[in-house]
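Rotation project, supervised by the postdoc (A.L.). Task for the rotation student: set up a whole-complex structure prediction and record inputs and outputs verbatim in this book. Inputs entered:
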Amino acid sequence: MKKLLATLSIAALALLPQVAGAQTYPERTITMVVPFSAGGPTDTVARLVAEAMSRELGQQIIVENVGGAGGTVGAARVAQAAPDGYTLLLHHIGMATSATLYRKLPYNPLESFEYAGLVTEVPMTIIARPDFPADDLQGLIAYLKEHKDDVTYANAGIGAASHLCGMLFMSEIETQLTTVPYQGTGPAMTDLLGGQVDVMCDQTTNTTSQIQAGAVKAYAVTSPERLEQLPDLPTAAEGGLASMQFGIWHGLYAPKGTDPAIMERLSQALKVALKDKNVVERFAALATKPEPEENATPQALKAKLESEIARWKPLIEAAGVYAD
Ligand code: MLT
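Outputs recorded:
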């Protein structure tokens, strides 16, 4: 009996640091990894959410941009980080599509992470450099078909939202364009504005202000209805591409094994952040909105990830586009 009590007390003592950690979490700066370059749509969402969560948690959250391979390098970094609540990942639909696109991923989206909650779902816009010789979606499609060998399409690598949109678009118009991969659509936008690359499909969190300023040509938005922030931009369905209707959902993750009490604390802070006045206003200016409270939960994010992996798998396999 004494031996059993001794064993139990040793086991309990071993757990003390974790229990104490969860109860006093967070005690130091938290890192939020964005798996794309600074200045792009994912980075924009992350910095707004991180700032509001910092206030709620009482600890600084610094955003670290870890680009490469369509977001999978940054996701792998977090999958391999210590499960102590001090390394988080803000990532989007790429967590689901990469599960099929990459046959040798260094992590499993459904086994390597804990889930804090859904963050926002952002529409995509098909845009071109400002002097591109097409003035509507049908004109763009006609030009791309005729000049496909002379047109370049920018994305943030296989697994990026910009890659997914491009894959669907090229499949729809049965035309393959030369793709130029970037570490994020922030730098890709710079080259589009400068005319170094021709066409891109990117999220309104990166394109709204450029479209409103007339700095790029805009042809379609992938939302079911026109956006109040871009009332003159037709939907893809209006332009004849009814299948191009989808949004880029984002989630907040931590490494597998992170204490459930810490995940609950993060989920609560995320819920508060998504109601923050600045977050709501800035998201609205970028033609998106925060997820409702009932979606900022571990269960909602995991369910979304599972359903989206299943949704995109057959489409990706039909397109025959793989990263490795
Ligand atoms: C993407 O294309 O997946 C992202 O928009 C890239 C980024 O956030 O820079």
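Student's summary: Residues 36-37, 40-43, 94, 156, 160-162, 184-186, 202-203 surround D-malate (CB under 6 Å).
Supervisor addendum: Residues 123-244 form a domain with the D-Maltodextrin-Binding Protein; domain 2 fold (CATH 3.40.190.10).
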